[in-house]
Known about the structure:
37% of the residues lie in helices and 20% in strands. It has two domains: 2-170, 3-Layer(aba) Sandwich (Rossmann fold); 183-271, 2-Layer Sandwich (Pantoate--beta-alanine Ligase, Chain: A,domain 2). The mean pLDDT is 98. By secondary structure, it is an alpha/beta fold. It has helices at 7-12, 32-44, 72-81, 92-95, 114-117, 121-136, 148-160, 190-211, 217-231; strands at 2-4, 21-26, 47-52, 86-88, 140-144, 166-170, 234-242, 256-264, 267-274. Strand 3, helix 3 (72-81) and strand 4 (86-88) form a beta-alpha-beta unit.
Amino acid sequence: MLQINSLQEMQEITYPTGSRIGFVPTMGYLHEGHLSLVDASRKECKITVVSIFINPAQFGPNEDLASYPRDLERDLNLLHERGVDYVFFPSSGQMYPDGYHSWVEVEELSNILCGASRPGHFRGVCTVVLKLINLVRPHRMYMGEKDYQQLTILRTMAVDLNLPLRIVGCPIVREPDGLAKSSRNVYLDQSQRQIARSLSEALQMAQSQARSGILDSAELIRQATEHLQSRGARVDYVSIVDSRTLMPHAQIDEYSRMLLAAYVGKTRLIDNLQLL
Ligand code: PAF
């Protein structure tokens, strides 16, 4: 596995002719969710590149940039064991040097759901991901469905800006009790960890209600919100949207997906599930 921390070196890599390049962008502190993306890339592509970069541009002033968990050595070992070809870990100074001015914004989709409580977050995500794509030059990019809004926004960016790559969404990897794997789960103490289960429970409840014929979104949202609150989570939003456009769905159909975000203590967690 080749370790690269220079932008120029990454961009100058000459891949063997005809090789399909798979790319997994991450912020490190890797878990099984990230590694499932690596596995998907290795299955479909000749070469797999993983980036590790905690992107300051996607954190708000009161968010957890300083405390975001990191362990580069452990990450490098995991990626090496998993058969990754290149790992790219640039510094913030290289990615955003003094005099940096250019930003990418996918309008409308970036201001709803998570974007409503995290202004500027998706602008930071789109900007860094486009920069990484330009540095790595992949044919396919592998992303988890846990960040479903992020996935949809990046797909929109790729279409709008004619990016010559395919974005592959991969299923959420969960703990045995249903909690979606996330680097931020490490913030949870034992009692918060119990409360955190309520996110996947609320989604499962909504899915079984929808499958049993309750197709009124408002009712499913009310029940999910009540469940989260009764377990001690502070709800940011619970929404049912069209999984292709993220626009609200009043009546459940085959495209309906419930997306939710809630605070457990100070930790903000997100999760989502297709309802039918
Ligand atoms: O999902 C993440 O870990 C980040 O938002 C990403 C896509 C690596 C961009 O910094």
